[in-house]
Amino acid sequence: MSNRSASPLPKDGWAGLKENWRFDLSSGFQVFLIALPLSLGIALASGMPPMAGIIAAIVGGMLVSLISGSHVTINGPAAGLIVIILGGVEVLGQGNMVAGYRLTLAAIVVAGVLQMLFGLCKAGKLSSFFPAPAVHGMLAAIGVIIMSKQVHTVLGVKPHGHETLEIIAEIPHSLWHANPDIAMIGLICLAMTIIWNLLPFPALKKIPGPLVVVVSGIVLGHLFGLETAHTSNLMGFAHPVGPEYLINLPGNIIQGLVFPDFSQVMTARFWGVVLSIALIASLETLLSALAVDKLDVYGRRTNLNRDIFAVGVGSTISGLLGGLPMIAEIVRSSANINNGARTRWANFFHGTFMLLFIMFAPGLIHQIPLAALAALLVYTGFRLASPKEFIHTYKTGPEQLAIFLTTLIAVLMTDLLIGVACGIVLKLVIHAVRGVRLGDLFRMRFRIDTPDTGTYLVKVESSAVFSNLLAFKNQLEALPSGAEITFDFSGAYLVDHTFMEFIHHFIRDYEREGGHCQITGFEAHKPASDHPLSARKQAAHV
Question: Which of 61, 120, 215, 379 is least enclosed by beta carbons within 10 angstroms?
């Protein structure tokens, strides 16, 4: 990795295509193999036809790649938006899923326009206002919701409830009344998903796990005769089996285009869906882009504002054609990097392969069992809500776990925006209880001195927390590269975990560009835990 990062940066634009097309074409094809089943599954889990996921992947690849601010990011539909889109279809359609689909497309279009405005207003820096445990709690809640909904599809049963807690409560009923043939397919595919990700053989892991699961699902579907309607009996219960358990696609991509219905644009519930899509999609895009920057072996950094704008353009066009909204997707992006991608053309090729496949081989998609896609999503949900996330959060401090759990529970009981707001409010309350002055919650007192040429002393003179980070962040990013920066926290009353994470990432990126940083002044502070980035408070006030 160090050898590649030290080599010249790949060219961009048409020159980059000419220089790197072999690497990007190969990676784009491999990412397409991963993205195809995930795009189908995400669309179905969102209450939309499978073509909606394909359209989003095509637009995200072929269009967004050309205008985005990133280099090796893959854009497309994401599991993190399933909860919002499905909720939009149900709320706007009021029981009519077809009408809800078209109304939600309108919300996607308007949300995309809002995201474009976010990008133009340079809202990328606002990501720092969301405390890390609240964001991770939101993602864990999304994981729980995805698992709770998709496990019923794995078992071949349709739940009766609509609210998350109702659907979770129905899992024992679905286990008892599982459709034996469909459950066999779903559970085998789920087991294969888990085993494939645990295999210790790098050569085998080069074959995309989702592809293996889908191909296995197709074979199992033929073995159980899903292409023809019949009845399966188990323990005296008769269960219908047939094509309704397979993906249903239109004959061609033109027939799959659906146009939005803007008839509810003046209603409060419509704008509730719009704001949820715009805010969560933007936040997920920012977090994914930052994570991809850490993985990029050439050390390139994403233009976050341009990336939000580009994703907004993509979501707007996707919604106009009948597709899902999109984000910068971390799993497919990391696979893109691991497969040797060098430029944005890998994302373009991934979308192109998706278009060619849906044009010339739609019959293969129709053979995929719904249970196989649901198995992939159950595993995706588990990764979002993995026990490791709980353990990692606890290690950063008990108060971080409290914010994490509060956000998670609030999301499950209400919705994403209210849940995240609860996490933010709890963090502010914790800071206030710890003694942070109300005036310091939203305004940090600091100064930047230059004792020598090329040397900067950044002295923090008040509490440094997530809610007052923005102005500090802007000042740091204005400093020239290649200098020597000393951070002095001796005057800081409290430095929280989100701020510690920011400083850690800033120092890493700044030193990667040739500068040097050091931290002083924590001698009198007591950390909240043994984690190196845990919150720190002056010991005299503990």
Answer: 120
**Where does the pLDDT of residue 205 fall: very low under 50, low under 70, confident under 90, or very high at 90 and above?**
confident
Nearest by Cα to 75 from 295, 351, 328, 308: 328
Cα 270 to Cα 11, 440, 540: the distances in Å are: 43, 37, 51
Query: Rounded distance, CA 49 to CA 221, Å?
Result: 20
DSSP label of 246: B
154/181 Cα distance (integer angstroms): 10
Could you tell me the sign of the dihedral formed by the alpha carbons of 290, 292, 296, 302, in that order? Answer: negative
pLDDT in tens, 279-292: 999 988 888 887 78
How many helices and strands (H and E) does the chain possess? 24, 11
The answer to whether residues 154 and 145 touch, using CB atoms and an 8 Å cutoff, is no
Closest CA to 505 of 60, 31, 22, 127: 127
Distances in Å between the Cα of 411 and the Cα atoms of 54, 173, 277 are 28, 24, 15
- Coil, strand or helix at 519: strand
According to the model, what pLDDT value does residue 125 have? 73
Strands (E), 22-86: 74-76
Buried b (16+ CB within 10 A) or exposed e, 13-49: eeebbebbbebbbebbebbbbbbbbbbbbbbbbbbbb
Distance CA 118, CA 283 (A): 11
For residue 4, count other CB atoms closer than 10 A to its CB.
Answer: 12
Task: Tally the residues of the chain.
Answer: 542
- The span from the CA of 300 to the CA of 74, in Å, is 15
Q: Could you give all domains of the chain from N- to C-terminal order, each with its CATH number?
A: 20-383 (no CATH), 388-434 (no CATH), 439-541 (3.30.750.24)
Pick the closest to residue 313 from 108, 105, 124 (CA basis).
Answer: 108
pLDDT of residue 313: 97
What kind and span of H or E run contains 173? helix 171-176
DSSP-derived pairing of the beta strands 494-495 and 484-488:
unpaired
Beta bridge partners of 526: 537
Q: How many CB atoms lie within 10 A of CB 518?
A: 10
Which tokens sit at 261? 């219905």
Q: Assign 91 to helix, strand or coil.
A: helix
**In the predicted structure, residue 9 carries a pLDDT above the cut 90:** no
DSSP state of 143: H
> What is the DSSP annotation of 326-353?
-EEEHHHHHHHHHTT--STHHHHHHHHH
In the three-class reduction of DSSP (H, G, I as helix; E, B as strand; rest coil), residue 402 is classed as: helix
Local confidence band at 236 (pLDDT 50, 70, 90 cut-offs): low
Query: How far apart (Å, rounded) are the C-alpha atoms in residues 466 and 469?
Result: 5
CA dihedral 495, 499, 500, 501 (to 10 degrees): 160
